[in-house]
Write a structure and sequence with these properties.
- The chain has helices at 33-38, 70-76, 156-162, 219-226; strands at 2-7, 14-20, 23-26, 53-55, 62-66, 94-97, 102-103, 108-109, 118-119, 122-128, 144-152, 154-155, 179-187, 197-202, 205-211, 236-239, 260-265, 269-275.
- It is mainly β and 280 residues long.
Length: 280
Amino acid sequence: MKFVTYEGPDADGYRVGYLDGDVVVDAGFDGDMVAFIEAGAPIRGGKSIDGAVLRAPLRPRTLRDFLAFEGHLLNVFPGLGKEIPSEWYDVPAHYKGLPDTVIGPGEEIPWPAFTQKLDHELELAAVIGRSGKDITEANALDHVFGYTIWNDMSARDVQARELPVAMGPGKGKDWDGSNVLGPCIVTADEIDPHNVDLEVRINGERWGGTNTREMYHTFESMIAYTAQALALRPGEVFGSGTATGGSGLELGRWLNPGDIIEMEASGIGVLRNTIGIRPG
């Protein structure tokens, strides 16, 4: 199934629903998507919603972003005079994002005043659906509720100043609206995370993409690594990291105000957003 969070003309705030084709159907649940997942995704609805507007499918409990695609690093590191560290092949390392920065499909992505080089990052994201600790790779996907698209925005000029400090991404990733999720969460029974086609288009022009079979680190390894001595909970989000060809950095191209970003994942759909005006 494809679950969504929507805002309707008669709804009091955001509601959980599911898609029947292009029609949003209310799930009959009084709570947000994280609570819905935690409750076992109980569907008690059936009312179609005219005029529903999709929002971010969930406000994640946590955001963890990995670097799973070797191809992305091979495209980027030579231009930075760097080689892929040997540790990358051993450890599915990640950084943590800010859940309150998340926006959804159709929303304008703000251009923060502190950057001149704004970039997109195409990712597949897994949403945890079942709690667990010390999870094995063999059982890891049993803990996934579903998958969505993640556009992890980056301020590249700011990021370039921060990364040499070796503290991980900071303001190069953190501003309101810097993480875009959507358009829906497709349940795990309908997605093979090892075979998802990913593509990004800017103003209709294909800038890049790949298939998740090219991931060096799998969602299984990410989940097992993270869950060592740590309980994972429903509503946590794991990002694949930038897909090969999924960023402007790999092409030496940057976004401009008014650009339309379309990110597509087979079996999930298209996440579409417009870049806002550059302040000043």
